[in-house]
Structure formats: structure tokens, C-alpha cells
Amino acid sequence: MSDNSPADETMSERAMESTVKMWLLMQVNRWVLTAVVLLGSFLAFVAISWLDFGSVREIARTRNGLRWLFSPFIGAIITGTAIVVTINQLVLAQELGAVGDQRSRMDAAMKFREDVENSVDMETSPPEPSLFLADLLGGIEAQAAEIQNVTADEPDGELKRQVTEYVEDLRENVRPVKSGLKRSQFGTFDMVWNALNFNYSLKIHRARQIRNEHASVLSEEAVKALDDLIEALTFFAPAREHFKTLYFRWELINLSRALLYTSVPALIVMGTMITTVDATAVPGQTLGVDNLVLLTSFGFTVGIAPFVVFIVYILRIMTVAKRTLAMGPFVLRKTRRQND
Q: What residues in the chain have per-residue pLDDT under 50?
């Protein structure tokens, strides 16, 4: 087999990007990241005030600067609430339909569960998405072991080496993913992250490659075992995509709520800054910084809070979507494996 081993298995390895970047984009709690960005914005605004651009009090007194700064936030925040309504309409539209449509969805879901159960010899698949994927991976691991058993007596040493290498790589990838899925719960990003860490695309490719390259020497039992494994791997793809879609809807609803939670306080703060704060407000200094600068920086930070919330949620959704554009044995990224 001409592929390198071990392959790019986890999402971070396959992305071939900075681990810190992937951690920030995907794994950090969205509220924590929002708080960090807002704190950075606050400190940056305070730092800019130290530059020789003129006193904030003087600007507020002579140019009505605070009104010019905070008035545009009112329209922007109200527009943001309109975005919330649009997002909710898109999410809810997927849940609405006639009884026939709903029954078709139910029948399709039940049929898929039965097909998975038959494929990996599972009596009754768990109802929890994370445990369903974990049990599916357990069945895939068992089928890979079966391939190694039925090829153990093959005279072709190269075939046995490739099968052994393939099964070991698959186990190394399955076991941490399966363990992570059992500890995760739907609605949290941990479940999606663990599911993304199983590199099923290359697993399908390599199983097909073994079967096709050694078709002339493989026994019927070995061919059937490989076909069963490929079938089980193909079930993982739509299962993961389905749960990823449900997670996207879940996350968009969370985004809508977060925007509403931050927009109303932001509107109140903006109105207060416009109507009550002037050049004579909060005299004095704190830690060498004019109190009006601190108040203005705080108001600006609160004003951009809904926008920052929107950015940090959408960044993760877009990153996951980019990493999972192709379902099936297609890889849309550069890999470390050698050319066939």
C-alpha cells in the first residue's frame, strides 16, 4: 500500500494549521472568547487615548464627539436584532412541514438506524447521538479486527503487512474518538469535535485500495469482510453529517439568544452615553487614566458586544462547515500521504 502511515487522523493534524488557531476557532468556550475579545477592545481603546490625538474631554466639549461615537450603535444594534429574527426563521423553517413530510423523516431515521444495526451487528442502537456514534465506531473496530483474522493465514506477506498496518491505524484513531464521544453530550461542541477527529474518508480509501490491489489473492471471506467494513464506514459519514446539522441548528438558536441577551443592555448603555454623559462627567483619574476615557471605553466595548458575539459563534460554525464540505471518500485538503 502506497500511503504513508500514520496518516493525518485528528482534525488538528488534517487541518495542517496552528494548534492554537484551531483551538481558538473551535474549542474555546464562546462566552470566554467573547469576554477576551471585549477586554482586548477595552484595553486597546484606553491605550489609543494615550496617543496625541487630543483630550477626550476636549473632543466631547468642542466637537460633540460622544454623540457622534455612540449614535451609530443604536441603528447597528437594532439591525442585529433583525438578523436574530432572520436566523430563527431559517432554523424554524426546517422544523415545519405537513404530517406526511414529518412521517417521511421519521421513517428515514428509523430505516437508517436499522441499517446501521444490521451492518455492525448491533442489537439496539443507543438513542443518544454521541453514544450512537461511539457504538458505530466500536462496530467498525470489530470489523477491522475480523479482516485481520481472515487474512492471518494468507501467504502474501505484503497483504498481511498492509492489513496489519491499516487495522492498527484505524484502532489508534477509533479508540480516543470513541472514548471522547462517550464522555460528551449533544449540544456541546465536544461531541462534534470528537466526531470530526475520526478520519473516515481515508479509511474508506485505504480499505478499497487493499481490496482492489489484492483482489486476485483475497479469499471470498476476506473480500466480504472488507466490503462490510467499507459499508460501516459509509454509515459513519451521514450519521456525523446529520448530527452536525442538528448541532448547527442548536448553535444558531444559542447565537440568537446570545444576541438578544447582549443587544438590550447595549441599547440601554448607548442611550445613557448619548443622553447623560458629557465633558463634565466623572471627573478625575484612575490609575493615571482619565475617568471619562474609562467610561467611554466601557461604553464602546458594550456597544460592540453583540457584534463580537455574532463573530465568535459564526467563526466556529464556518470553520466546521469548511472542514466537512465533502461527505464520502473525497479529501479537499493537502495530506501527508504519498502519491499512489
A: 1-7, 338-340
Per-residue pLDDT at 2: 42
∠ Cα 75 81 84 (to 5°): 150
The dihedral region occupied by 236, where left means phi > 0, alpha psi between -120 and 50, and beta the remainder, is: alpha
Residue 339 lies in a domain: no
3-state secondary structure of 171: helix
Residue 119: alpha-carbon gap to chain centroid: 28
**332 falls within a domain:** no
Number of folded domains that form the chain: 1
Q: Where are the alpha helices (DSSP H) in the chain?
A: 11-15, 19-22, 30-49, 56-62, 65-93, 99-119, 129-150, 157-183, 189-196, 200-213, 220-276, 291-323
Rg (CA), the chain: 27
Give the cell for residue 135. 457504538
What pLDDT sits at residue 248? 86
pLDDT at 37: 94
Which residue segment(s) compose the domain that 184 sits in? 11-323
Residue 287 inside a domain? The answer is yes
